Amino acid sequence: MTIRTRFAPSPTGFLHVGGARTALFNWLLARRHGGTFILRIEDTDTERSTKESIDQILDSMAWLGLDADEGPFSQMDRLERYQALAKSLVESGKAYNCYCSREELAVMREQQKSQGLKPRYDGTCKNRVKPRPGINPVVRFKTPACGEVLVNDRIRGKVSFDNAELDDLVILRSDGVPTYNFSVVVDDSDMGITHVVRGDDHLNNTPRQLNIMEALGISPPEYAHVPMILGSDGSRLSKRHGAVSVLAYKEAGYLPEAFLNYMMRLGWSHGDQEIFALDELVQIFDLDHVNESAASFDVQKLTWVNQQWMKSLPTERLALELKYFLSIDGIDAKDVLLLQNVVNIQRDRAQTFVEMVEKSRFVYQEPKQYVMKAARKHLSPNSLPILESLMVVLGDLDEWTVDSTQLAVEKVAKQLNLKMGKVAQPLRVAVTGDSASPGIGQTLVLLGQEKALVRIKKAVQYVVDVTE
Q: What is the pLDDT along the chain (468 residues), one digit of tens a residue?
């Protein structure tokens, strides 16, 4: 059997953390077994589905590298198929037309609530023979009145549901658009889906879908309902926990490799290993190691994983990422060698590319002003002889390297009988605008001799101006 999986998001919003993990699990299962991964857009919620959401989902999948073998398919392109099957169920007596109005349904629910009953459709139209004039009916599936539905779930084991707890659900709306539980059954069958891996919030839908499959003579796929992702405090995941768009993490400077790596560890494990490459996951992923308990999303842990990837990926790859984020900041980093030097110096100091840009902006742009706290402490009248001496010693260097510039700064410190920090810090503020940067030799090399000397000269003038 060739495994065929699918990811079927609803385009009513952005692709979020939970959806990304579902897509990843389905993609890996297909790749692990040489199968097929299908992308299906479930857009039958016509009031809330938007093209913007579809584009955002596709862009997210592309950024993550979760390429589909088939699709994306749109359910709205398949309306005739759903309508034909719904009609066949009505003709075979397994579904029926329901003419109850919204007002009648509302009264029905209120009466049931007042009697302490579970609100549900009471079957008023189940045996109706004649249509009601002037009303476009919905089509309801005739749910078996008794018995149980058994779901064999790869993660939760056997889960049973009582048919008596299920009402006759609508499978086709009055406008001819199918509901979720009907369209998903038809699509999974037509597309030959063998394994359905989805969030456990869909578990209660599964018995309804299995009943529809039996009525249509469809063999069910294997199911695996993945536990929900919770916030770090154990509550439902929300924006304050990091439940934002997948692309928001791209914009925040995270690597797709790191994001996928962290998503993988939310509910799946392989011993104590924390860092996984995607090609490695393809070789070892299986559903048996998916945890049954809910996972907690922790932005700090994601950031740690991202930093590990920033430390390990090739310089050339990181340089391309940094160039992209510098361009967003309005910086055109054309010098490839300089870009790579920045990466190699900053990769251990930054956790995201947004942070790396912030720490590296001084290389490309002269600070408009000094950070006030740093200037007050390190660009005082006492720093004037230090900066003037540095201008002379650094200006005399024939070779501009990390070692030569470092030795020059140490030489000035010795000449003035000062500790290294008393010399390096005024210099650091002078050339970067702040008191934090890479090692002083590395900082000077990134800037180059000409830029460094110009900035030291301006710092000297600043000290003179504030002293007068």
A: 899 999 999 999 999 999 999 999 999 999 999 999 999 999 999 889 999 999 999 999 999 999 999 999 999 999 999 999 999 999 999 999 999 998 999 999 999 899 988 898 998 999 888 889 889 999 999 999 899 999 999 999 999 999 999 999 999 999 999 999 999 999 999 999 999 999 999 999 999 999 999 999 999 999 999 998 988 777 777 666 666 799 999 999 999 999 999 999 998 989 889 999 999 999 999 999 999 889 899 999 999 999 999 999 999 999 999 999 999 999 999 999 999 999 999 999 999 999 999 999 999 999 999 999 999 999 999 999 999 999 999 999 999 999 999 999 999 999 999 999 999 999 999 999 999 999 999 999 999 999 999 999 999 999 998 886
26 with 150, same domain: the answer is: no
132 in a domain, yes or no? yes
Count: domains in the chain: 3
CATH number at residue 374: 1.10.10.350
What tokens does 39 get? 């992308």
DSSP category for residue 201: G
| Residues recognised as catalytic | 239
CA 432, CA 364: separation in Å to the nearest integer?
A: 10
Residue 308 lies in a domain: no
Residue reference for tokens 């260097």: 397
Domain of 197 in residue numbering reads as 4-72+181-230
Residues 162 and 218 in one domain: no
Residues 68 and 87 reside in one and the same domain = no
Quote the CA–CA distance of 269 and 380 in Å, as a whole number.
55
Whether residues 90 and 10 share a domain: the answer is: no
Sign of CA dihedral 83, 85, 86, 90: positive
